[in-house]
């Protein structure tokens, strides 16, 4: 096993079918005003406050109860162990990125409680103890045993990598061995109703080198589509994985499964897996994904809907599903090095995921509508509390998603002011980024190899960028540049070489495929990686649902340092339609039904909505067709 | 009990708190080209074809099985008896309106099978026989026993009124007595999870004069909101009925309950019941009803959504819910004589309900979207087949909803060519209507009292009408006329007096309250009582979802005798927007993103959609703001 200090999000260091290799969280030092304070907030505020709730709600009690230290009935939902594991994983990533002795102690203590609940045979799930012990493994579809096990394994891996302490990873391995013995020796057939363990087992294989974990992961994946868990699309059990071509079912389950399949592909290289993943990705991104990167539009079954079924007010778009979207695209990026995956990862991260947590780091959305009347507010916790610790672990891990390495050189996926040390074919290279990204698209990168060295720098040119420019040591590069790709700059890099990346952030009006009826005759505003929304509190003079943007609307972006911890707002001129049909649902239109007046409006990043006074909000803004558009 | 030939839909003849009294189906002779052929179709085609399916699917087998004539397990869903009862009720109304000896024989035979399944103690439900007998009345919330009983009672009443044959009503009374004994003597508490029996019991009281049935109905209504069936809004058990102010829950259950409460009010006059009904009606019509009169917008729980939650593509709008809407508004109209209830009844009947059955009378919609891509098609039957026999019984009963009587005179609610005989304070009055309604709003009515008589004619002036005119014997009446009211013409009527009602049917653009985001910047087309839609098959040159109607669009209505059994179409000039973002979900808008071209379009009545080649359809059409609207 590897030594402490290599906290990878996904360790593809030795994965034969991955193009990219990881840079550990420890090597990445973010010093920007966007991510650095958020990651500190997660460590200093979110994670400690979540521990209090995990204790309050009986989740830790359940472990003490299982170990015999406390008495009483099991508390909460049967899969609540997973929240504790995600919390540990969040703490581990946080500790990898920055020291906090109190948090370290708290995590250790929590881990000891977890471990003490493990059975002698390695089994570990606090629900299936005492009376419920006989029900172990009897309902893989509904009872989330393998799901909880997967989260335990992921937490253990992250904590071991971050601290080098081995108690939890030992326990996780014992449990994984127990599962392997339970299933692999022909004693039981099955596959989990809620995927998660597939990716965990591949990562455990990567950490330990034990092939049985990889094989067990493949066993669970190969068992899908056989009807072992009922054969429903909801459980993604209606077809063998390799035959999937449409993304369906419970969004988190579906995309966690894709993560597992991608992890498996990176180790075993089955091209049918990759083909299915490509089909599923196109199905999602071309027909079933919100402009925020949110997925799973349906309340019914927390699921993907039909193609183009993307309602705004009644969007489900679970925070966990946007998180899963980041996780999946990160893996697709590692496999391929293709920028389209980084684009979706960035989109989901800055918009769909970030909206899931309040600016103060202690309240959460489970459901993320794209339009609202002001009644949808973040909560401190949920009975089914999958989202809060999930967003904590994802955001804590983000430093690990900025850079990758390949045999050719260094890959830059995300931009933020800060430093990183990366080993390129034996040469240590230090990179320093200066940028105000995501508020500004100018990025200056100083390259400092310990010795002059020839390698490539792969710079992500985001799909959203228009007319990007790149200079090396003040000279425009002599290469074609295209948005939505990685620009490879191969040269002999000298200490202090400077790359300048200029990604002009214009305010863009995004239109939607007309098959999404709700978005016809509407535009969304995008600037850089951020999707904007109009919120009532910034626009007191009209109902934001009645804002109408003409095509020639003059708009400008402005940095507001004191607003929402500092955001770039978009303001501009538009119209407000004042309808007069209050109290009536339907009315005959007359030429005076709608009165429009000129107004000034302000839009904020979508991730920041619902942090102030409640009121209407919408991402998709009505647009005004101009007569010259008619021919 | 009353003699044969008084087949009332709701018999308010002696109801102390009803303003209007009924005219039996037997007295109403429709001779028009809209309803008369439909009602014949129901009798000659729909009802016989449904009997075949009811037999095929084991619904009649279940009765034979329960009576010991056949062996085997119960077939289908546990509430399938109700479909047989609704079928009998449909047949009864059909036989009241027109003779069909084959259907009469078939109905008699079916009734004998029903009766033979009755237990000695009066209990009658084929699911709760043999092994399930011990479960009787143990789960009122889910098992629909009282719901099925209600449908049996309604069928029995209709059949007795239509034929004078007493076997089924005797059986129904025995069952009702059994229920009364089961619940009323303090043996059991409870209320049905699916309301229905409330209105049935009140009608049984009206037929038999036995007050115990009325009291039993009130017992069930008064037991709501006590948590006896779980206390959920879904079951409308979250509050006592008299405290309800928002319409919620499963739409059919909710509105059937309102029907029961309205029936109860008409007998016992509890003003708190009526107040609650008014609140619920406003909640529905002002915030939760589709423009088609369809209700229950949500798939989840087949339920009413939040205020203004009225999606188009994913509308649920169950056919049974639109039927319930007609039933409820009919009762509200009987209570009050207020035209607003007749307006909603007419709207739901001609649009939301009629769309539920194919033009050929043998296929049905369960779910009624207001926009579609061509995949939603009517089916011959459903596993849960509540809608097909429900639409049959409603349409078969429609002749009974054209007229009412009050102490002042005769009320005309609906218009169609035909004749009726009505007794007004002892004087027999014959009315003859000549009209092409709903295709044309000119209605000529000849009044023929057997002797000159002074009474009022209450003519419904539909809420949709603009500049209506009324003439009596070619003289314009000297009274103010207003749409959405009943015009009372009181005079000494002579044999052959002619009333001319002129309701100009212009094509109207209807706009929706802007709180329904999906309908912003859209219009629906209405002409007379009919809501229109654009369907792809009539508009081959552009996608109907991309049709854009400018405010000054020239439109005209035209009778098309050979289309869809004869409909008035709307055609006009508009634009089609050809978007170029096929394959992409989101794209940056440019001035060339949308190209508009002038097109001619055709719209058809919504009820007639999905009877031809499948393709996109929408009720709400994009509209184009004109620059002069901006100030």
Rg of Cα set of chain A: 25 Å
CATH architecture of the largest domain in chain A: Alpha/alpha barrel
- Would you give the CATH topology of the largest domain in chain A? Glycosyltransferase
Beta fraction of chain A: 15-25%
Largest sheet descriptor of chain A: 7 strands, antiparallel
* Helical residue percent band of chain A: 25-40%
Topology summary:
The structure is a homodimer.
Chain A: E1 21-22, E2 28-30, H1 35-56, H2 59-66, H3 81-97, H4 101-116, H5 145-163, H6 167-184, H7 197-208, H8 211-222, H9 251-268, H10 271-287, H11 319-336, H12 339-353, E3 371-372, H13 387-397, E4 403-406, E5 409-412, E6 418-424, E7 427-435, E8 442-449, E9 453-461, E10 469-472, E11 475-476, E12 485-493, E13 497-502, E14 507-512, E15 522-527, E16 530-535, E17 547-550, E18 555-560, E19 567-579, E20 586-588, E21 594-605, E22 617-618, E23 621-624
Parallel strand pairs in A: 5-9, 17-23
Antiparallel strand pairs in A: 1-4, 2-6, 3-22, 4-5, 6-7, 7-8, 8-13, 9-12, 10-11, 10-13, 14-15, 15-16, 15-23, 16-21, 16-22, 17-19, 18-19, 19-21
Helix pairs in contact in A: 1-3, 1-13, 2-4, 3-4, 3-5, 3-13, 5-6, 5-7, 6-8, 7-8, 7-9, 8-9, 9-10, 9-11, 11-12, 11-13
